[in-house]
Amino acid sequence: MRDSIARAISACLHTLLSYLLPAQGKRRKCTPPAVAEPYVSPWTRPWTSPSKEEAAAIFRRQAEADAVRERLQQERRQAAAYATLGVDHPYTYDGAPFGPDDFRASA
User: What is the pTM of this model?
Assistant: First the structure.
């Protein structure tokens, strides 16, 4: 009886100590701290900017996007004006469940 009590207490202590003390084996070994890369000031290298061609492409894409946005806004205004007059305007968009032909068929 004493042996079983002693084993139970020993097992409990072993479990508690395993939670409190660090692990054994390779995980217990201290690893050297990682070497930090030396600081490099951003002012030590020249300023890099887009080339003339890259800048022109950026402005061209921006102008095209603005033109598309303006065209869509104009089409929305036209559709709203026709709606106030009671006329169906064939306003469609990509992925619309209907096309311009559906408006002509109902008229």
Answer: 0.40
**Cα-based torsion angle of the residue sequence 80, 84, 88, 93 in order, rounded to the nearest 10 degrees:** 10
Element (H, E) at 19: helix 2-20
B/e letters for 41-55, b = 16+ CB within 10 Å, e = fewer, are eeeeeeeeeeeeeee
The Cα–Cα gap between 105 and 107 comes to 6
Q: What is the pLDDT of residue 107?
A: 43
Taking the C-alpha atoms of residue 101 and residue 91, their distance in angstroms, rounded to an integer, is 11
The answer to whether 56 touches 50, Cβ cutoff 8 Å, is no
pLDDT in tens, 58-78: 999 999 999 999 998 998 898
